[in-house]
Amino acid sequence: MSKPVVAIVGRPNVGKSTLFNVLAGERISIVKDTPGVTRDRIYADVSWLDKAFTLIDTGGIEPDSDDIILSQMREQAQIAIDTADVIMFITDVRQGLVDADEKVANMLRRSKKPVVLVVNKVDDFKKYMPDVYEFYNLGIGEPIPVSAASMLGIGDMLDEVIAHFPERNAEEEEDDRPKIAVIGKPNVGKSSLINKLTGEKRVIVSDIAGTTRDAIDTAVKYCGREYVFIDTAGLRRKSKIKEELERYSIIRAVTAVERADVVVIVIDATEGVTEQDAKIAGIAHDRGKGIIIAVNKWDAIEKNDKSVKEHSDRIRQVLSFMPYAEILFISAQTGQRLNKLYEMIDVVMANNSMRLATGVLNEIVAEAVAMQQPPSDKGKRLKIFYITQVSVKPPTFVVFVNDKKLMHFSYTRYIENRIRDAFGFRGTALRFIIRERKGES
Ligand SMILES: Nc1nc2c(ncn2[C@@H]2O[C@H](COP(=O)(O)OP(=O)(O)OP(=O)(O)O)[C@@H](O)[C@H]2O)c(=O)[nH]1
Ligand SMILES: Nc1nc2c(ncn2[C@@H]2O[C@H](COP(=O)(O)OP(=O)(O)OP(=O)(O)O)[C@@H](O)[C@H]2O)c(=O)[nH]1
Predict the structure, then answer these.
(1) Half-sphere exposure of 170 toward its Cβ, with a 13 Å CA cutoff?
(2) Which domains does the chain have, with CATH numbers?
(3) 336 lines ligand 2 (CB under 6 A)
């Protein structure tokens, strides 16, 4: 169910960004389809052969002295050890082996995590191979020569990476308890919320077989049902540097969201919703999870009869790409509305895996089409032949039409809204795949 996480670690200037961009393709470093969310180079979805994984770059900001470089590399390596299934350690054949590489290699070796040792900038295999062998001295396995810039050796490197993925774990897959990730900016109250929700009933289940990440999963019983809260404790780092803290919170969110059914995005009521919240929320949206926005510290602000509406409006505006998300005003400190949160988790999870019968769907679409004529262009009008739901988590529909170009975003949105009017689907994204049916027009 959950995708493996692969983390990139390495000294400045060895070519991490270049490699990252090669692996991520064009899907990275650009403003993606989630409005308002600029994707920076922290994580990307990658697939190789039939394996999909999440790639994260643990690298932080530009260091300017050897001491700082080493301490930052240690920090990166630790994040990788905490979160990744496989670590890619990137070195540079032109610079050769340096002291910092050896120190970090020792750390990685001790962690017992699978490490793939990549030697970059081998633009000419014949010429540089003798230098590549030198990297055996790191004692973390066979060095794999690549050239990120000329895209050489990338396939062999990826073969090696996916060979280390954990076997699909039957126990984990059969586990049908709701899994909930609590994510958000630093200091919004994530830990307080998890602590309050789980209380004394807290049972730590971190040693679930097959979870190689050091996530702390906490199972808690509520009204006879067990819920598992995912926390990535290893990443609760205290840094003074704002960019670094934000980077950790994004990495923490990516790795937790991957395994979750429902994501609780915590926002601080005393600060209001920000672009950083949007960035984090975008991670859950992209992955089609059930979503609840929990406006925390509701106890700490002055309220009047307009407060709920004002906060909701602002959230809807900043997080405009997820109008379907549920919003709840809570206090992790006093416990206000936490019962409601459990109820909402149940509902959102059910909606995220709801299946609609094809007959009913087509009736709704036929009615929708009758009520609002489909768009046309140059005398040709859009025809919707058939709609069917192909998967859940999130609910995904394939719509067969006469001409894809005629199915504008706004008309898809209209169809989506009619389906939502009939079935709700609160708290979950819906996906639409538009297919042309040839031979009919
Ligand atoms: N010759 C050669 N140069 C490369 C290769 N890959 C990257 N470079 C160059 O190495 C330099 C550093 O590359 P980056 O990808 O920015 O390195 P980085 O590790 O992300 O650096 P930081 O962002 O400082 O951590 C750039 O000038 C790249 O063009 C390669 O395969 N061969
Ligand atoms: N008034 C009030 N304060 C809260 C509430 N929830 C958390 N806090 C306070 O907010 C601060 C941050 O809470 P944490 O739970 O550590 O926040 P976090 O999101 O886990 O922080 P990081 O681990 O640093 O990302 C603490 O001082 C909490 O006491 C709340 O509901 N009301």
Answers:
(1) 0
(2) 5-163 (3.40.50.300), 170-352 (3.40.50.300), 358-436 (3.30.300.20)
(3) no
Q: Give the ligand 2 atom nearest the CA of 195.
A: 15
Determine the atom of ligand 2 nearest the C-alpha atom of 188: 19
Q: Which of 18-22, 73-77, 121-125 has the lowest mean pLDDT?
A: 73-77
If one compares 265 and 73, the residue with the highest pLDDT of the two is 265
Is the CB of residue 299 below 6 angstroms from any atom belonging to ligand 2?
A: yes
pLDDT at position 13, please? 85
Element (H, E) at 347: helix 338-352
Alpha carbon nearest to ligand 1 atom 32, residue: 121
Q: Binding residue per annotation — 198?
A: no
Residue 41 in contact with residue 17, Cβ under 8 Å? yes
What gap in Å lies between CA 4 and CA 241, rounded to an integer?
29
183 lines ligand 2 (CB under 6 A): no
- Least confident range from 6-15, 216-225, 266-275: namely 216-225
Per-residue model confidence (pLDDT) at position 401: 94
How does strand 380-381 pair with strand 376-377?
antiparallel
Which two three-digit tokens encode residue 129?
Answer: 């191979």
ipTM of the complex as predicted:
0.79
**Pairing mode, strands 203-204 and 216-222:** antiparallel
CA–CA dist 46, 40 (Å, integer): 15
189 CB within 6 A, ligand 2: yes
Which is the closest atom of ligand 1 to the Cα of 59?
25
